[in-house]
Give the backbone structure.
Amino acid sequence: MTDLAYEVHGSGPPLLCIMGLGYSRHDWTWALPELSKRFTTVIFDNPCVGDSFCPEEDFTMKDVADWAIGLLDHLGVDAANVFGLSWGGFVAQEMAINHPDRVRKLILGATHMGVNNWVPLSEETMARFAETYDDPEERIRKRMPYSFRPGWIIDNPELFEEIVKVRLPHQPSDVQYSRQFAAALTHDTADRIHEIKAPTMVLQGTADNLLPPGNAQLIAESIPGARVEWLEGAGHLFFIEEPERVAQAILDFILSGAI
């Protein structure tokens, strides 16, 4: 059994999607229709968010990777394509390093290798994401704009309100968010990432306000054979901004070299 809340959608090659810091499986809502047309798409709540368990003791990204492998075991999936976004990219890296036989192809979206080898976030961004809020809706409205390309919310006000409505019931508490944030601070694969054997694509928006795009190139240079798929003009949440484009990029990558 698994203590991770999950859903399975669609048909095709298996694709395990791992969400970012403070986000639940419901945040795949806007990308899921496109992904599930092409893949058997598994989405789940990370520990300490949504309907999944929250360990009493501190945990690491390696722990989360082991729990994600446990989910694949529960589903009877021997190996899956893995798409890790931001914090989820930390998990995906650990999966590919420590469980190489379980990862067919690896997609790392808007992520980094850890603070020992990265292009750091701005001080303003770090401060905003370290803040706590008593009001969950305020938390969404204060943090989330950093994750879209400049002007996206102005151009898409109705969609943004829909996103707030969907996200609100599944927000982690400040304590749960802090647990995930603390786990993120343990992330460091810089001296191990070269061990990844899975074919790897790094997806990166060129207008990412949250994570400097230079991190994508650092990762690609550190994993043998990896390449960057640049999403021109897209922000950190590129899978919401351009779901069709992202799904096609993933499909092309997964099917490339297929027999």
Remarks:
- The chain has a mean pLDDT of 95.
- Strands lie at 6-9, 14-18, 40-44, 80-85, 103-109, 200-205, 227-231.
